[in-house]
């Protein structure tokens, strides 16, 4: 599955309060569930792993994954949660929320199990995530619940958009938790990124970037790649070509002059770099601009 085909279906979105001793017996779900612990404490068992949840924590349950939940202590537990399909299917409306063990499922219920494809889309998503910025996710979650309850016109569409924001924030939290070394260097990496973005008219060297960031150039390449998905030099090249495309479309500067302004020695090296990133020659955007004027 491709992440660009994501088409979430929100089955349940509710805010739940538990003020009494409570234990949810082991079960498996047909779909996915995100449970956010707003107040109180929980003990959550997922397969054979035991987690203790505190306010601001997220629990993530997958289809067919054994889990049980129990309240810890006497304080009120508040646990807003969502049940959802990552990809809308024809039977998405028919699927229910399960409270059964796998071995107690009927043949008809077995047909409702969704494929677990999250790890195909991204790095493995943990069952328990201790959030760094829980208020960001909390705000989106309660907006989703409000839309689900009010059901204003086009609420389904708005919930999809809100869910994608929530899911993105959750994936990023999961990514930072798995790569704490990136987070500890994020300010330096952002400083390098901004420098590259605002210096498109010249070539830059790794030695120069290492001096700016205070990070050795080889480690900088690794960190930058893990954070932004490409090396610093690749990012700089991308920014230069984006700037060139903008100038081709919205100015009358000759292509040779544009190549000079973004630091290329000649039109040939500029055209080669441009085509490698854009897939077309620079003149494509100049012709397109003229045809629309």
TrEMBL record:
UniProt KW keywords: DNA-binding, Transcription, Transcription regulation
Organism: Paenibacillus germinis
Pfam families: Cupin_2, HTH_18
Domain spans labelled HTH araC/xylS-type: 190-288
Record has Transcription as a keyword: yes
SMART domains in UniProt: HTH_ARAC
Protein name: Helix-turn-helix domain-containing protein
Keyword DNA-binding among record annotations: yes
């Amino acid at each position: 599955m491709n992440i660009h085909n994501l088409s979430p279906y929100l089955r349940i979105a509710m805010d739940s309060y538990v003020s009494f001793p409570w234990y949810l017996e082991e079960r498996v779900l047909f779909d996915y569930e995100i449970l956010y612990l707003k107040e109180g404490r929980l003990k959550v068992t997922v397969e054979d792993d035991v987690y203790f949840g505190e306010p601001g924590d997220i629990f993530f349950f997958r289809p067919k994954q054994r889990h049980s939940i129990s309240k810890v202590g006497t304080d009120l537990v508040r646990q807003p949660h969502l049940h959802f399909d990552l990809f809308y299917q024809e039977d998405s409306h028919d699927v229910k929320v399960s409270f059964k063990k796998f071995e107690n499922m009927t043949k008809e219920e077995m047909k409702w199990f969704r494929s677990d494809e999250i790890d195909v889309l991204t790095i493995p998503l943990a069952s328990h995530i201790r959030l760094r910025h829980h208020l960001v996710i909390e705000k989106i979650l309660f907006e989703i619940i409000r839309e689900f309850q009010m059901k204003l016109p086009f609420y389904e569409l708005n919930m999809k958009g809100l869910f994608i924001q929530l899911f993105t924030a959750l994936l990023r939290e999961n990514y930072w938790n798995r790569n704490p070394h990136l987070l500890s260097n994020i300010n330096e990496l952002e400083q390098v990124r901004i420098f590259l973005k605002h210096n498109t008219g010249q070539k830059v060297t790794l030695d120069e970037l290492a001096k700016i960031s205070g990070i050795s150039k080889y480690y900088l390449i690794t960190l930058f790649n893990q954070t932004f998905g490409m090396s610093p030099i690749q990012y700089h090249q991308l920014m230069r070509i984006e700037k060139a495309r903008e100038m081709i479309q919205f100015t009358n500067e000759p292509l040779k002059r544009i190549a000079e302004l973004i630091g290329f020695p000649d039109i040939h090296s500029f055209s080669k770099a441009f085509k490698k990133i854009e897939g077309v020659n620079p003149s494509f955007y100049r012709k397109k601009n003229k045809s629309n004027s």
